[in-house]
Specification:
By secondary structure, the chain is an all-alpha fold. It has 18 helices and 4 strands. Helix 5 packs antiparallel against helix 12 and helix 7 crosses helix 8.
Length: 441
Amino acid sequence: MTATLTPDNAAVAPQPRPAPLLLRMLASRRLLFVGFGLFVVLSLARWWGDDADALTSSQTMQTTLRTTIPILLAGLAGLWAERVGVVNIGIEGMMIFGTWFGGYGAYIAGPWVGLLMAVGGGMLGGLIHAVATVTFNVNHIISGVAINLLAFGSMRYMSELLWGPGAKDVPQGAGISQSPQQKWALPRFDFPFLSGGRIGSWHSPDMFGWLEKKGWPVIADIAGVVRGFTFNVSAGTLVALALVPITAWVLWRTKFGLRVRSSGEAPAAAESLGVRVTSLRYAALLISGGCAGLSGGYLAIVASSYYRQAQTQNKGFIGLATTIAGNWRPTGVLASGFLFGYPEALNRVGRDAVPQLFLFGGAVCVVWGVVAIIRQRWVSLGIAGGFGVLMFVWWWRIDTIPESLTTGLPYFLTIVVLATASQRLRPPAHAGQPYRSGESH
């Protein structure tokens, strides 16, 4: 007699739990190896050059962190919007809302209230975008461009009402193009032992500062990076960085996040299973606007001490590029944000070291050529050889680079990264496509 195994009496094998995020990152040994190899090449380029210490100095890294945060937050804004299926070109405008409301709130009630008002201002822009794209099915690009124009004009009008020539009791320093200075600044601190922070009244040793001053290849560079990220850190920076793991956890570990992603991949199928796509898109766009507003508030409150017209400097568009280059994932957006923030920081505090990047680029091209020979990819070998020769010639012949050229380096890098990474990216399947709830698709 043979017993038949049915689903009712069969033992169900337990499903393996997904590995933690940190373990999955460490499992990608190839990516870590490539990243460390590039860092070693950059370290040797710094060690070889006479005026190239700024490439990995703690001052450069601290500035990199400060310039990366607004781009990172703008990238998270794009991530939340596109994961739910809406393209958010209006990030720049939502950041403008954030800079104005953040600067005004920091003036009347302090920086923490200013950050909350900045988030609220950005959410206002997200709500406008949601009404236009979700309720009235307006083209996403047109709605985003309209928000950018609306934000610039309306915030200038508000500044004219409060601080213009005809206003009464205008505070000192305020005007149509800027707000009064904030009441006080957010607290800043150094990490104990890593960068000489205090424990009570005791001043701990500055371990990585001591290693950085030694100038040893690789070791001094690692010390400069760690110290740059751990000294004079603003509380607002920690809040912004905390949004990366929070976003990753919400989108990939919660039911809400699963429904958000399903609304961006297949909204009709999600709606057939009971998911309220319209409500989710409103919620995700409010979160997107809040991240963009916080980005603008960071510029007005942490990076500066008041709102100033044109303060965003197109960082909303660069943030949208980090969303794409980061493959619509929070950790990828974080890495892309540092990639775009580093050239801007180097232009500010270490412009004399920029020519040494040509040596770094030439060395990378040499490695690229060796890999192309091993894999017998002759077209790649020719491209690597051509770029390598140009890099080495530029490094040999150019001593200084005009500031007008180095200022455009982040935007040029944006184009290069998007062009090279476009073949390996996977956007949400329904991002940017029109959808009306309840209709057959």
